[in-house]
Amino acid sequence: GGEKMSRKIPDRWLDYAAVGKRLDGTRFIAFKVPLKQSLSRQLPRADVFGPWELLDVLRRDDQELRLIVDLTFTTRYYSVQDLPSSLQFVKIFTKGHEVPSDATILSFKRAVRRFLKDNADNDTLVGVHCTHGLNRTGYLICRYLIDVDGMDPHAAVKLFNSSRGHDIERQNYVDDLRCGPRRSNVGMEESEQEPQTGSATRRPSDGSDDCGSERQWRSPPQSEGGRSRYPTVERQWRRPPHSEGGGSRYPPGELRQWRTPAPRSQQDRRGPLPPPQPRYSPRWWAEPKPRHTHRHTHGLKRYDH
Sorted alphabetically, which SUPFAM superfamilies does this protein's record hold (predicted)? Predict the structure, then answer.
């Protein structure tokens, strides 16, 4: 039934690298759908990829994400409540398999134009994902680069593929980008939907047994009645500081202000920040997990992904 479906990891999700590289010369970055904790807790720790892991990866690459454009045709993978409060969120329901409609393309252009206008004075990124962060994502990013930035279609596809670390698989998407008509940009400066802001003020604690120490540094102070309202004083260290001058680099000292401090005994032992976990090594997100030896076909019937 629906309940079982809603707890399932997306088909072939583990086959793809979590995050690509920033598309050089643009503000775009592509990644697969980050999963909320109730979905990712069934995965081995090395495979976990949710909103907070996404920020960790980008921060190590010295990039700051500001907006997520979610193209999946479902709401089951995460909601705005699962996103850190430093992120904005726009949802554009986009069916898989078929070339996105002109209305969908215009919605995407509007979301990106609005982002660029609001963030003209900084170098923050707009992150785009579908289920695998590859086909719908690649199509719409390339469509934008071709239609709005005037990029050569072959160059756009090549830039996306090399940055994502996987090639767009759907031939109908690639053919349309390379040979199809450019879509109109009329109306793209009009704002269509107000971006929502993430409302998670702290990362969810990890329920597994082997990380008691991590759970301690992730937990907030206990408030009366178990409510999740924090006094403003404590909120300072939960949110990334807004840097002056639009710079997107946080020196390590600043990062420390808004990470939950470790208990005193741990600070003495290993400093305020926990050591990076093995899953965050460059190989973790640069390479897909070798799951299957055979290549998958794309005969997926469902649109719920």
Answer: (Phosphotyrosine protein) phosphatases II
